[in-house]
Each structure stands twice: as C-alpha cells, then as structure tokens.
Design goal:
This protein is an alpha/beta fold. It has helices spanning 25-28, 30-33, 35-38, 44-57, 75-80, 93-102, 138-150, 228-237; strands at 12-16, 65-69, 85-90, 107-110, 122-127, 152-160, 174-181, 184-195, 198-209, 213-224, 240-245, 255-260. The strands form 2 sheets. Strands 4-3-2-5-6-12-11 form a 7-stranded mixed β-sheet, with helices on both faces. α7 crosses α8. It binds S-adenosylmethionine (SAM).
C-alpha cells in the first residue's frame, strides 16, 4: 500500500523560525505529533455521544461492534470503547502511533479506506472529521462507501461526516486558531482557495515549546467538494440506503447516514 501521510497528502515545506528551508517529509510528519494539541477545541466526547444516539435511532441499540475508519489518533474511539467493541483503521502510521498509546488492547489497523479488508462485519462504521474529503475522485468516494458496506452487517449503519458542500465552502477566507498549554503554544492560520470542485486550504503553523524554540510549518490540503446529492448517490450505488442529517457534528458539514440493505 502507498503510505498515506496526513497533511502530506499534499506538499509541504518547513523551516526553523520561518526560514522556509525545504526539509524531508519524515520531518514534516512531526505535525501528526501535534494533531491532538492543534485540535484541543474539539468536543470528542460530546460528538461520540451524539454518534451513539444516531446509531440507536437507526436501530443499532445497546453494545455494538463499531469500526471507526480514518480514526486518526483515536479520539472518538477513546469514548466509544467504553460502551462498544471497537476497531480502528487509518492510512497513516504517524497518526496511528498516538492512537496505539491511547487505546491499549484495541485493534488498530493501517489501511486505505478505499480498499482495506478486515474479513468481518460490524454494526456501525463511522468515518469522521471530513476524512473522505481527502479522496481524489467521486469514484474513490463510491469505492469507499462500497467498502464500508462490505464491512457492515445487514441493517448496519455507516455514519460519515462529509467535507463541505460546494455552496458552504467560502474561498478567500482566513481562519485563525490559537492553542495554549504549559508545554505547547500553537498558532494556526488557514487560507481557503477553490478551483472547480477542489478546495485548497493553505495552512501555516507556528509551534512553540518551552526550551525548544518556535518552528514554522506550512502545508497545503486539497479536498474534493461534492454536493449532498452526489454523496447520497454514491451511498445508494454502494448498497447503502442514504439519509442526510443537516445537524451534524460541526457547523456547515452535516452527516450522512447509510443503512446497509440486503445481505451482500
Ligand atoms: C482530519 S483527520 C480525522 C481523524 C479522526 N477521525 C478525528 O476525528 O480526529 C483525517 C484522517 O484521515 C486519514 N486518511 C486520509 N486519507 C485516508 C485514506 N485514503 N485511507 C485511510 N485513512 C485516510 C488521515 O491519516 C487522518 O488520520
């Protein structure tokens, strides 16, 4: 399998103190180390509760078997494992490293969401924080949904948080976020661009650590903008009966829910 490098699905350059010197991708992977700190604003526990409520609403009640695809550093699984038998899949070795420390005893598999095979089925398959936006084409999205369907029991539920609908993506905007903790201070600025059905987010990070100085990282993240109707169509053709919930986990994204039809 081609290794998948989170944030580096993309191109990157990095320099000490903003010098802009190009460095190897292995150094760039350091950003995965900062993922949790950079996303400390996200309410993973609240989101996990809401995901469980959605699973119940679509018939998956009580303790379920739950597969989180593109699980990243395992933040949702940390809460879901309290009430469910969980497994995680992610394409990035660097993202799985903190997940393994966080989730001792949980099966975590490195795999591409389009093609991984676990040889078993689940009650629920989730794929969150717009990870499908990293896929390159609509056919990749359809293949991914078919793979989710392959890993679901009949009547099982796929819960997918999509990337923005094209109408909700606002090019030309600048976003700023600041994170402060005793051992790390980070500033993240993003600039959004749109070309056809591709979104581009240009990220700039300043990450400072006591005794270690401040480092500058830059990354470009390209996403696929599909309409709600295109996504629902991809789900339907993958053998999932699709629903769209406009109140999702994060503003402007919604949630797709697909119920596995048939036995295949
Ligand atoms: C925005 S992060 C979301 C991580 C996690 N779900 C969360 O909510 O924090 C996107 C994740 O998708 C993973 N990813 C991207 N493309 C992938 C692919 N084709 N197959 C598997 N994982 C992929 C990345 O490695 C990264 O961990």
């Amino acid at each position: 399998m081609e290794p998948i490098k989170y944030h580096a699905l993309v191109e990157a350059s990095m320099g000490r103190g903003g010098s802009g010197t190009s460095v190897s991708l292995s150094q760039f992977h350091e950003l995965a180390k900062y993922y949790d700190a950079l996303n400390d604003w996200k309410d993973y526990q609240g989101e996990s509760r809401r995901l469980e409520a959605i699973a119940r609403r679509f018939g998956r009640k009580g303790k379920t078997t739950w597969l989180d695809v593109a699980c990243g550093t395992g933040r949702h699984l940390e809460f879901l494992r309290r009430r469910h038998a969980v497994v995680g899949v992610d394409g990035s070795r660097e993202m799985l490293r903190p997940a393994r420390s966080r989730l001792p005893g949980v099966r975590l598999v490195r795999g591409d969401m389009r093609s991984f095979r676990l040889g078993r089925r689940f009650d629920v398959v989730s794929c969150l924080f717009s990870a499908i936006g990293h896929l390159g084409t609509k056919e990749d999205v359809r293949r991914t949904f078919a793979n989710f369907a392959r890993h679901l029991d009949p009547g099982g539920v796929a819960i997918v948080e999509p990337w923005f609908d094209p109408s909700a993506f606002h090019p030309g905007t600048v976003h700023l976020r600041k994170t402060e903790s005793p051992d790390l201070t980070a500033v993240r600025m993003a600039y959004s661009i749109r070309r056809g059905n591709r979104s581009t987010i240009q990220w700039h990070f300043l990450i400072g650590r006591p005794g270690q100085g401040v480092r500058y990282y830059r990354a470009t993240d390209v996403g696929l903008l599909l309409t709600r109707y295109e996504l629902l169509q991809c789900m339907r053709s993958a053998g999932l009966r699709p629903h769209f919930l406009s109140r999702g986990l994060m503003p402007g994204r919604g949630l797709l829910v697909g119920v596995k039809v048939g036995k295949g």
